Amino acid sequence: xxKNLFDFYLPKELIAQTPIQNRDNSKLMxxxxxxxxxxxxxxxxxxxxxxxxxxxxxxDSKVLKARIFGYKKDTTHKIxxxxxxxxxxxxxxxxxxxxxxxKIGTIILFKNNTMSGKIVDILENGNRIISLSTxxxxxxxxxxxxxxxxxxxxxxxxxxxxxxxxxxxxxxxLGSVAAPTAGLHxxxxxxxxxxxxxxxxxxxxxxxxxxxxxxxxTIEIEDHQMHSEFYNISKETLNLxxxxxxxxxxxxxxxxxxxxxxxxxxxxxxxxxxKGSTDIFIYPxxxxxxxxxxxxxxxxxxxxxxxxxxxxxxxxxIMNAYKSAIENKYRFYSFGDCMLIK
Length: 342
Prior knowledge:
The protein is of the alpha/beta class. The chain folds into 2 domains: 3-63 and 162-341, 3-Layer(aba) Sandwich (QueA-like); 67-147, Thrombin, subunit H, CATH 2.40.10. The chain contains 6 helices and 17 strands. The protein has helices at 140-147, 188-197, 235-246, 256-266, 304-313, 315-327; strands at residues 27-31, 38-42, 55-59, 61-63, 67-72, 78-88, 91-97, 107-110, 115-122, 128-134, 173-176, 200-206, 229-233, 251-254, 275-278, 293-297, 338-341. The strands form 3 sheets. A 9-stranded mixed sheet has the order 2-1-17-16-14-3-12-13-15, with helices on one face. Strands 5-6-7-10-9-8 form a 6-stranded antiparallel beta barrel. A two-stranded parallel sheet has the order 4-11. It is globular and about 65 Å long.
């Protein structure tokens, strides 16, 4: 399947640069995947489109302040680091810019000498492996929280006044370099309405990697190599999933990250691996195992994310929905509006 099928023109003014004042005041598109019908509403009313006994599955990963700057020892050469993932204690995979200044053996000093590091390897994709030492018994996570900044996507040009607006209200487990953005719309008021409706809530963790922003570069999407991300799901959540299925109610994934995690464990639901890495690539013709509905933002052209929602709702339905979103001035991407596909 050619990746050009997932391309579309988006006016730049529809790329949301800042979050709206009230999280739950975003526009909500409802797309019926079987009929292709489209309705327009407000996210505050999301509970109106769900049923008692349905299960919402949300990703409780928290975004790291993963972007920090360091200097080559004994020089003024400034290097930008994006901490991607912890390989083992004090050993991290990073993106560096400029990479040519971070050769193997290079010693890096960070702000106020709170942390130092040594480049110990360079991967095929150019990412650097850095071995770190911290001061005052602090962890790398502590240091990042003190001197790092939230790594906003490159299409967001405006600065973020409040870092919490790029975190979900229920974020808990540090490890993502990007927010699971479908969850940004949820507020306490929305959760209260869902509880009154009898909609159940469960949490999984999938740490979002930088690969989530990368477009599919291969002409034929089947040739694309999906990036790998760490996930974790509790026995309590697994039991809720099984209970929901047994009672013939719907499992609604909040975001593509939750969807990918659910479908990973759904491949062997009787004996699932509750913790590990997933590189599942979902595109049209995929047979969904667990997910009955998806709450999702509007995604980049030719991205693996738009391919995922096309697999769920049908390519024609998704492209029609995106056309409608543009015509109705929906806000796109991380700080944008969302849709419920059911």
